[in-house]
Amino acid sequence: MAIQKEIGDGMNQEKKSKILVFILVLLITALHYFTASHRWVLHDFFRRLYYLPIVLAAFQFRLKGGFITSSIIVLLYAPHLIMYFGEINLEVVNQFLEIVMFMVIGLITGYLVEIDYKRKKTLEHQIIKLADMENYTHNIMDSIHSGIVAFDFNGNVTSMNKQVDDVIDTDKDLKEFLEQQQLTKEINKVLKGKEEYLKKEIEYSIHEDKAINLNITIHPLKNISEIIEGAVLVIEDITMMKKLETQVRRGERLAAVGQLASGIAHEIRNPLGIIKTISQTIRHDVQDDELKEGLGIIVDEIDRANRVIKELLDFSRPNKVQVEAIQLENLLDEILVITKKFGEQKGTAIYLFVEQSCEIEGDIDKLKQAFINIIINGIQAMKEEGNLVVSLEKENNKWAVVTFKDRGKGIPKELLDKIFNPFFTTKESGTGLGLSITHRIIEEHQGKIEIKSEIGEGTEVKIYLPLLRGEVE
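^ that's the sequence the OP posted. Answer follows.
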């Protein structure tokens, strides 16, 4: 709309200029023809007035305007000379030379204005091209997922794309971020040519309870002569990549455990079964109480070893999820009936809060196993009496979120990434396979687990499971 308005204003101005030139030419010509011939002082004055429309036309319409206007004036003024003089003499020649000057002035002025007009158009075209290139470059930078910051040779920020704020996600000044992460010195090294290329990974805390992994790269910005004129800082959020790497490593560990289990589990189980049978037989026959107690310990330890082998075999066997529609609140009710007695023995009260009804698809037995593992871990984490709260809600009409929150001793931050690894445990008698199995079950249901923990404050486990399609709609 603005461009159309500008074009319309230009056309109106051009039309007004044409009318003004036309009126001036007619007015001056009329003054000549209606003024007595013997009053040549006035005629000289009127003749010089012709330069006004000529110059005006040249400035408004360039060479074309100067030529056409001066030609029209010549055609209108020449008959006046012949009419009043009737003969050719020196005075008439002077007047005709004046007519030639009309043409010369019109052509020269129009030519000069034409050159100036072309220069302006060329400059305007270059400015438009430069602006288009700048917009194009800006759009490219904004389309890049990573944050990009450009610095001049003095280390001052010259430009940055919008992803910088999105990646860093902070209201702090960029310079404060650079100083905090000790990047200013690194940038100066690149600017001074001490380093050709710098790359580092940092962990940046957005909030108190959230940290992201950033990959920082610094490149020198060189001109056509290979002279360093500045530097470019690229900030890439690699948090998701780190999580995927952790999942891959965990998967590799699980695969190794599966191969190990399938190779030795059966060989170990057979002699353990024989030892257990013999121990039970001897225990039944002997009368010595101390010996009976010792044999009972052997049987208990064999049972414990068999449980570990069973868990190992669970890793080696391919899992088939028996999919069916599950009303999560009903499943959680059943689980609380099973675990409530165990909680009471440990002095723990378990509460369930259902904020929204949620229906999902999955294997009831496997989900029951996963949830019970988490509840038992929460109860065992509270050495003194306490409460374990289980809640159910929806998130974004996409996820069913089951939250388990205890008031136990908490998990150190450096161990949070390891708790799902096979054989990793903080318990004195644990096998380290319970949470690994839980994690795998949730992944088999296309879900995810998030854990937050503070030492002395307790642990919060959130399990996200996709809602049924009908639930989502």
